[in-house]
Design a protein that fits this description.
By secondary structure, the protein is mainly α. The protein has a single domain, classed as Ferritin, core subunit, four-helix bundle (Ferritin). Helices cover about 70% and strands about 5% of the residues. Strands 1-2 form a two-stranded antiparallel ribbon.
Length: about 150
């Protein structure tokens, strides 16, 4: 049986998802001793907050079209990090970056699947393309920040 949801439902899910990630990174930032790891987790937490903010600022003109569109919901495994998944709070920076990239890649794949459904209006496709752009941009920025922190 296929499940259908509005983009508004998916929007709510994504907002909650990014909020949980933001809180996860913030919480683990307080738990580590390494200043470098704290800096990276702080940066990553701010990224999740920025994504939440972007979700709240949809183009008003296209907001109704985007949010009221029904799509076949392709289940996105709710990969919300748990304490068990954080192997060691003193992990090296490269391990943290890899973990962040895996989560971002999962989101990018999800957005891509949403774009390629048949009958999706152009504003909805553009909304998900914009989210892909933001995730890709953030991956680059996280990699650069991680390198700067390691060189610090």
């Amino acid at each position: 049986m296929q499940t259908y949801k509005t983009v508004a439902d998916i929007f709510d899910f994504l907002e909650t998802y990014h909020g949980r990630l933001k809180e996860f990174y913030r919480k683990n930032q307080a738990a580590v001793n390494s200043e470098r790891v704290k800096m990276l987790l702080s940066y990553t937490s701010r990224h999740e907050k920025n994504i939440q903010d972007v979700l709240k600022t949809l183009n008003e003109k296209e907001r109704d079209i985007i949010l009221k569109t029904w799509v076949q919901f392709i289940p996105f495994t709710e990969t919300v990090l748990t304490e068990k998944q954080w192997a060691d709070p003193e992990e090296d920076i490269d391990s943290i970056v890899q973990q962040v990239f895996e989560l971002d890649d999962n989101l990018i794949q999800f957005y891509d699947k949403m774009i390629h459904q048949s009958g999706i209006p152009a504003p909805v496709q553009e909304f998900f393309r914009h989210l892909i752009f933001l995730e890709e941009k953030e991956k680059t920025q996280i990699a650069q920040a991680a390198q700067q922190i390691k060189d610090f």
